[in-house]
Please model this.
Amino acid sequence: MAQATRLVQELKSQLKIRGVTYRELAHELELSESAVKQMFSSGNMTLARLDKICEILSMDLGDLLQASDSAARQLQRLTLDQEAELISDPKLLLTAYCLVNHWTFADILNRYQLTEVEGIRYLARLDRMKLIELLPGNRVKPLIATNFTWQPDGPIEQYFRKEVQGPFFSTNFNDDGCLRLVKNGDISAVARQQIQERLHAIGQLFDDTVREERKLPIDQRQGTTMVLAIRHWMFEAFASLERTDRQEK
Model:
């Protein structure tokens, strides 16, 4: 991804983190909301405009570059050994999932059947695996992107097919918040490619939404999986580890 594209993506993230809408930004820039949306969609903005947006966000270009570089350094794909180790222990996999989705250590202990000592061991293990950076006070900095790519036919892909795919689709998808679209028809290879590109855009929308929702309290977020279908669903291995006596916040 070119640096300019990364900067625009980071600007979008910073807007969401600060709760600044396109409408509010348009007012500050004295532009129409549609013009601002087009500017971010195309990634076409002048250095002066970029500097002005940073000023609105109370940051400078140096801050933006640093945040963008930090995001770019996140792991986009694990090694085969890292994948294999992750799926070797459901509690390790659970801890990694929660941390990548910006749960606090206290949130994990409150929700799941992990003792503090056990949890610290998993933090240290993930730190050794270079998936997180363990900080003082059991805080962490995730070193892996939320939407990291699986190794083709690797341990996680095989684990998904065996343990996750079947249970996920074993429902009628009739509950609120569930959707499964099944479409059939004869289309050209060009049209199929165009649809794939739009589906990738939907995937990016999902990732953007995950980042935006991180600012919500943990009890207002539900584990959600989308595989050209979407519903509230939790992997059984994770659900079995939930505390029955946890304190609601």
